[in-house]
Amino acid sequence: MAGILSNLRSTMIFSVILAVLMYALYYFAAGADYNPSAVTVAFMRFLHVISGVMWIGLLWYFNFVQIPNMGKIPDEQKPAIGKVIAPAALFWFRWGAAATLLTGLALAAHRGYLVPTLTLGALEGFAVPQHVFLGVGMWLGIIMAFNVWVIIWPNQKIALGLVDAPAEAKPAAGRTAMLFSRTNTLLSLPMLVAMAGSQTLFG
């Protein structure tokens, strides 16, 4: 077991195997009630959730751990954060955001409520409260993903020196990235209420 846990790739391969075994467990436990359509939806939702965990987890890492503690790090150690840790975290952060958005839209399309939720139920005369509620969450997620790709990531590249830019542009770019990252943190809780609540509050 130590050999598996000492290598991230081995750890994740083993985790995937265990996840597949959980679906196999459902197959045997359900027996005659096995529902392939439900498995498809469950798998799509699984991909959406793990993408969201990666995205929001790193968003909160930046805002609860990295940003508040940067001032406590000695100047000679800060390049390790800016050149190694932050670029790696931003890679998973931005692709987690993209994957969350795409899997969410795909799930909504597969379930047949993509247009009703994106229009906030307007095409149905607001007769389905769940579509309005979930639609608000979807739009918050879209706004947050937009912020990641169009504002946060381009400004972080400048702030971290990953692209050529005047030295005087770095502080402003870093502040812009921080403010929009903080905006996403502000929006994350209502977004999660909508996403999680729409599955339970409306039955």
Number of domains: 2
How many DSSP H or I helices? 7
Instruction: Say how many strands there are.
Output: 0
Which percent range fits the helix content?
over 70%
Instruction: Give the helices and strands as they follow along the chain.
Output: HHHHHHH
Give the amount of beta strand, in percent. Answer: under 5%
Mean pLDDT: 95
User: How would a textbook summarize the main sheet?
Assistant: none
State the end-to-end CA separation.
42 Å
Structural class: mainly alpha
The backbone outline, from C-alpha atoms, is flat
Uncertain segments: none
The radius of gyration over CA amounts to 20 Å
Brief rundown of the structure:
The chain contains seven helices and no strands.
Word description of this protein:
It is built from 7 helices and no strands. It starts with a helix and ends with a helix. It has 2 domains: 34 residues; 156 residues. With 203 residues, it is an all-alpha fold. Helix 6 packs antiparallel against helix 7.
